[in-house]
Design goal:
Layout lengths: L1 E7 L2 E7 L5 E7 L22 E3 L23 E9 L4 E8 L5 E9 L5 E10 L5 E12 L9 H4 E7 L7 E6 L19 E6 L8 E9 L4 E8 L4 E8 L2 E7 L3 H4 L3 E3 L4 E3 L2 E8 L2 H15 L5 H4 L3 E3 L1 H5 L5 H14 L3 E4 L27 H10 L3 E6 L3 E3 L4 H4 L8 E2 L2 E2 L1 E2 L2 E3 L5 H18 L3 E4 L16 H22 L4 E4 L17 E3 L6 H10 L9 E5 L7 H9 L5 E4 L8 H21 L3 E3 L11 E8 L2 E8 L6 E5 L9 E6 L7 E4 L4 E5 L5 E8 L1
Parallel strand pairs: 20-21, 20-32, 21-22, 22-28, 28-29, 29-30, 30-31, 31-32
Antiparallel strand pairs: 1-2, 2-3, 4-9, 5-6, 6-7, 7-8, 8-18, 8-19, 9-16, 9-17, 10-11, 10-13, 12-15, 13-14, 14-19, 15-16, 23-27, 24-25, 26-27, 33-34, 34-35, 35-40, 36-39, 37-40, 38-39
Helix pairs in contact: 6-7, 12-13
Length: 703
């Protein structure tokens, strides 16, 4: 028996190589390893570092059901090698295991990033045998014993956090006990096992249409937090369940049972699983999100946008609603420039004379809407000191697009059962096809060179389902191949146009994942058109993405008052201002408040890009009367507070890191505010009093 013990960036990892030459992952935690906690009637048998399911091999032992335990040949993999190296990111571990019967060799990668308690994990699987092996499942990360610290029953100490997501209802976190998800203890602690699995899964191309691909597991007794994100822009799966007296967590991309994926792996062929990030801290949910924020900044494409945090005006929300014309744009451009915006994006509809939904795909302007061309408006935007942008939906083609019949054949599109896949009157383009990528390149290059476009809102409003049957072993493989090809295409766009800002939008926030966000600098968070609800989405957004990537609409309504403008603007002021609304049609006082907010934002945005989030009132729900989001950077913090309804006019916001600290709290927006605010050094509490519903204030705290 051999032990390999690692301590890096606050994380303890313990591997064991048994006398039977099996590799085990015994521990992955901010807490120290206690060998006694691994005890069960199955010993260390279930502590496998990787699970692999290939066709035609028995899965002995355990009542596994659809759970990815006792996979075959995963259960019989033997240790082959262990590598411990350093690279430009930090320390990297590689555990190599091998199955003699199939010839499958797995390399489990654990990449540390200096300065954060998060590890990037993935698996490379190679067929070194002489026969084709059909792979039905491969884990990116597998850990048994996630509940083992502490004396309480798992259901009394473990809390699982899930981030529910949907259109106009993004980023809704809910915590559950193990009992609430059907995993209460029903046997002796060391013998607990069942067929029940609690899982979050996405099937299809909208990676976040039901859940953000992440999760948090908190041990409230031991004070530890395990957290993860799956960096995949399509199908993915994570599951939590019991095995051999312990609980396990497994993360993966697509699989056969859940997402119709399998891959025939030929001799000498390799595949790589999706990447995921796994971290562990002692302390709070907020601390975990802080570490994840730092990690996300390290894996992201280096770009000027995330350093500058430019203010974008987009003409859609509570404004033109996808019905732009040159005549409508000119006064909006004037108003946006006066307010201090730095980019101006013409949203949907610029390419069609009337109803545009099913005609998209050619991306040439409507001369009815823009008699002198889009370039005339783009030039005017530049004249006003802003950079012009346009809306695109490059991955689809409307069924009435002229190119469908004149240029395209079935190889351009997803097909199943011999027929093209329709969704909402659009076809899904297949980016594995070189002709599709060439078409997309031509569109991007033309818009940049002819119109001087510096910003693209890249939308995506369909769900093509499980995949495509062309040129693949399974429809799920076809989908994953398209998704990888799309990311490669996107890398090429940024290589040619490094200063181009492309916003990731999928009917708002339905592809909030770090396969996409490691490329894109900014993410649409929602199509929520009620500013009073949007503060909840805004406050929760730093759980899923960096604050400087979180685009939040601020859209003053024509008939509102000054507190409505303030509430609207504070929704965005700790994140990325995505300005809209008929700014030219609101009264001078309210227009001045928009300008003031943008001016304040420009003064604090250098802090935002390096700050980590905190939630003094906890994560927000739409039913909450009070909402808060804080950002902390060094000895300075910013605190946004919103009051919706409720009888209480006073809110006490506990801020743990201010306890015992000499701190100064002041309101920095709006400047007309006389809002009472007090700070208690003894408790670290900030107390505020808002004398009416639907008020918001932005505070600066220094110490």
């Amino acid at each position: 028996m051999k032990r390999i013990e690692i301590y890096e960036n606050g994380i303890n990892i313990v591997f064991e190589i048994t006398d039977e030459n099996e590799a085990k992952l015994l521990h992955f935690s901010a807490l120290p390893f206690d060998e006694a906690k691994t005890a069960s009637y199955m010993g260390l048998k279930t502590f496998r570092p990787v699970e692999i399911q290939a066709s035609g091999i028995d899965r002995p032992d355990e009542r596994h059901g659809n759970k990815y335990i006792v996979t075959a040949p995963g259960w019989r993999m033997k240790f082959k090698d262990f590598r411990d190296v350093n690279n430009d990111y930090g320390r990297k571990l590689e555990l190599v295991t091998f199955d003699e019967g199939t010839g499958l060799e797995a390399v489990s990668h654990y990449q540390f990033y200096t300065g954060t308690s998060v590890v990037r994990c993935w698996t490379t699987l190679t067929n070194k045998g002489s026969e084709v092996q059909t792979i039905e499942y491969m884990s990116s990360f597998a850990l048994t014993g996630v509940e083992k610290e502490g004396l309480k029953k798992p259901e009394d100490k473990m809390k699982i956090w899930v981030c529910h997501n949907s259109w106009q209802r993004e980023l809704q976190w809910q915590d559950y006990t193990l009992e609430q998800v059907g995993l209460a203890s029903s046997a002796k602690p060391t013998e607990q096992r069942s067929s029940k699995v609690f899982a979050c899964t996405n099937v299809g191309n909208w990676s976040a249409k039901e859940y953000i691909p992440m999760g948090v597991l908190e041990n409230t007794e031991a004070g530890s937090v395990l957290f993860w994100q799956i960096e995949q822009n399509g199908s993915w799966h994570w599951e939590l369940s019991d095995v051999g007296g312990h609980f396990y967590l497994q993360l993966s991309g697509p699989s056969e049972i859940e997402s119709h994926w399998y891959k025939n792996l030929a001799p000498n062929e390799s595949i790589e699983s999706v990447k995921c990030a796994v971290g562990s801290v002692t302390g709070s949910f907020d601390k975990a999100m802080g570490e994840l924020t730092k990690y996300r900044r390290k894996i992201r494409r280096r770009n000027k946008d995330n350093q500058r945090l430019a203010v974008i005006f987009n003409d859609y929300m509570n404004c033109l609603w996808g019905d732009p014309t040159a005549e409508k744009e000119f006064p909006l451009v004037d108003a946006a420039a006066e307010a201090g915006c730095e980019y101006f994006c013409i949203d949907a509809g610029w390419y069609a004379d009337g109803f545009w939904w099913d005609e998209v795909g050619e991306w040439k302007e409507s001369r009815k809407r823009f008699p002198n061309g889009v370039k005339e408006v783009a030039d005017y935007i530049r004249k006003k000191g802003m950079i012009p942008g346009l809306w695109l939906e490059i991955e689809v083609m409307g069924i009435k697009c002229p190119l469908v019949d004149s240029v395209c054949d079935d190889s351009w599109f997803f097909t199943r059962h011999g027929k093209r896949v329709y969704d909402r009157s659009r076809y899904q383009l297949d980016f594995r096809n070189p002709k599709v990528r060439s078409h997309a390149d031509e569109v991007i290059d033309r818009l940049v060179s002819e119109y001087g476009i510096g910003y693209i809102k890249m939308d995506y409003n369909i769900e093509p389902g499980i995949g495509t049957e062309q040129n693949c072993d399974s429809v799920g493989e076809g989908l994953w191949g398209h998704e990888k090809a799309y990311l490669e295409w996107l890398d090429g766009v940024f290589a040619r146009h490094p200063d181009l800002i492309i916003e990731n939008c999928s009917s708002g926030g339905l592809r909030m994942d770090y396969a996409m966000l490691s490329r894109y600098s900014i993410q649409s968070t929602s199509d929520q058109d009620d500013y009073k609800k949007y503060c909840t989405i805004a406050a929760n957004s730093p759980t899923a993405l960096c604050p400087e990537q979180s685009a939040i609409w601020a859209y003053p309504i024509t008939s509102g008052d000054r507190e409505e403008v303030v509430f609207n603007m504070i929704n965005a002021m700790l994140l990325r201002i995505h300005q809209s609304g008929h700014l030219g049609n609101i009264d001078p006082e309210r227009k001045a408040l928009v300008k003031e907010a943008i001016s304040v934002y420009k003064k604090i945005r250098a802090d935002i890009k390096e700050a980590v989030p905190f939630w003094s009132l906890g994560l927000s729900k739409f039913s909450d009367d009070w909402v808060s989001l804080g950002l902390r950077n060094g000895n300075k913090a910013y605190l946004a507070v919103w009051r919706r309804e409720g009888k209480s006019d006073t809110c006490v916001l506990p801020i743990d890191f201010l306890k015992g600290v000499d701190a100064r709290v002041k309101c920095i927006y709006p400047d007309f505010s006389e809002t009472p605010v007090e700070f208690s050094k003894a408790t670290g509490n900030v107390s505020v009093k808002f004398d009416r519903p639907y008020m918001a204030r932005l505070f600066e705290i220094e110490w």
